Amino acid sequence: MTGAPGAATRDHFFCFTCLFVTRIMVTRIRSFAVVALLLLGMGVAVTPSATHAADGEGELTLEGIVNNTIIGHATDGNYLNLKPFGSPELPRIMLARTAGGNLTIDAYGSTKSLLKNGPYGLMHHGDGADGGHADIITDPAQIEEAIASKEHLHSSVARTSGHVVADFSITRHFVLSFLAFLIVTGVFVTLAQRYKKGIGRTTAPHGTLQNMMEVMVVFIRDEIAKPNIQGEKWRTFLPYLLTSFFFILVANILGLVPFAGAPTSNIAITGVMAFMTFIIGLLYGSKDHYLELLTGPPDAPAFVRVILVPIEIIGLVMRHLALAIRLFANMLGGSLIIFSLLGLIFIMNVVFGQAAAWGTTVISIGFTVFILLVKLLVAFIQAYVFTTLSALFIGMSVEEHHHDGHESDSSTGQGDFESRLDAVEDAVEPTAA
Amino acid sequence: MDPAALAYLAAGLGAGIAAIGAGIGIGWLASSSMDGAARQPEAAGDIRGLMIVSAALIEGVALFALIICLLLVVLV
């Protein structure tokens, strides 16, 4: 490995070009920050013997792979990852409680200036796993060293006096979701102005963009909104469905763009989107929906209702939770697979040597390209699924039942079934005869 | 046995079993929807849409399991 630096850099280059395409990001929610820190620890634990296989090439050890490559991409960091062109840091905004008990807002331009100018220190992550209380590094020399090795971007910070109440720092996923928002807004404001002028209404839609978007908008209206939402109510919810579809689509596709990443692989973002669906369902919920939710099915005996009502309520919450987790896990899962495949090259290099690494490169890159294509498909499918399920859930809560009595309802159902049977018999008879 | 090793083992086995479950579920779904589409080709479009939604629901359960496995590995 050290013997053939040329091959190593080429390997490196290969990997980087592909690593830029996707990256894993875990959320800023605290448990996931712990996850990221512990992944660091895991890197040390995996192969204590193999880590020194390539001295001087920090990134080519297993520890280096986990620390510098995966952690850098796996977490929702406070910097943009434009690796060969540097990694610009993003502002840090902390709501903190001082030792005196007052709430303050600490705003700094970057993590670097936060550490240098603010009352903050780096958390020492090495002992975090077993110790429980980690010590804070405030020594300027040590902080300089951490900044020089970019270590401060992968560690968490803590206030030296008092504690941080909430971290409102601008993160990469925030920036990327904002980018997705700007793209969607830009495209649709432009198109809306065209429709205002009459292009597409009085004449045929003109240009690739307008045609492409009109196909998708019409698809969502006719295939997602209309069938799932009762009567004419789909008109109320179509704007929300279109917004969520195009935002998710653009966000997912950003995950395939070099230097960017999928904001939807952050559970905070998918959680907020699922929460919006939930809130819309609650706000626009019909009386029938609430009656059935809170008192059980209309013709059920009392003891069944006692069992069913909690189940209904839990089910309502769970299906929106599942909505968030499905999108998040799909986007994260795709990136994880790619990382596993690309990481295999480095692991082979460390464990079996260079020849094995070259052999693996061919296979890994092939599979990675395949997975990237699958991710493109998944980007569309997940946007479709999220929108369809949103429409379904909203449709379920706004649905109003027929109030002309249960009997007539069931009899029409019966009649419908019988007429269908007749139709089937008519269809079958001639072929039988 | 080392608890960390047990956790890794559990995560690996759990991911495998979740994959088996989701595979069987989506396999049945695909087989019946293909049956349906073959019997009634004019309904193939509707069936496809329903299939994707049901597949997403099944997949969601498998992904729950997967996240738990991931947490097992990472939080051990």
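qc> Strands of chain A lie at 92-97, 103-108, 120-123, 136-137, 157-159, 163-167.
qc> done
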